[in-house]
Design a protein that fits this description.
single chain; about 130 residues; mainly alpha; about 75% helix
Length: about 130
């Protein structure tokens, strides 16, 4: 007769259980901080490009090192890369925590859903800038 998963998981004492919960929430807060940073980078990149597109309407392009369009695309790319790396790190940290302190149910992270939605918005902004300039 095989034992169920619930009966094979040792119970943690209250102190350890609370420490694991604080660690899990800390990982969530860290990912949410990265989501805010990525959102700022994506928004800034899109705004810079749109501002200069509207401000320079009818004017010849300047011969600078990097134009507003390339700068905006770069900022969005940096935001998306940061978001991807932070989400991967979050998933690795949560998997390590789950492996070390197994729970009856796997840890769920609403922050990863938010990261995915912000990432989707960033990709749409990137594609919009890439094909509509």
């Amino acid at each position: 007769m095989s034992q169920s998963r619930e009966s094979s998981i040792p119970a943690l004492d209250a102190s350890t259980d609370l420490a694991v919960d604080r660690t899990r929430r800390s990982y969530e807060r860290t990912l949410l901080s990265w989501v805010r940073t990525a959102t700022a980078l994506i928004t800034f990149g899109f705004s810079v490009q749109q501002f200069f597109r509207l401000a320079r309407a009818g004017m010849p392009p300047s011969g600078g090192l990097i134009g507003p369009h390339a700068f905006g695309l770069s900022m969005i790319t940096i935001g998306l890369v940061a978001l991807i790396l932070a989400t991967l790190q979050h998933r690795w940290d949560m998997a390590a925590l789950q492996a070390r302190y197994p729970a009856k149910e796997p840890y769920r992270s609403n922050a990863t859903i938010l990261a995915g939605l912000v990432g989707l918005l960033g990709v749409l902004g990137f594609l919009s800038m890439l094909f509509h300039d």
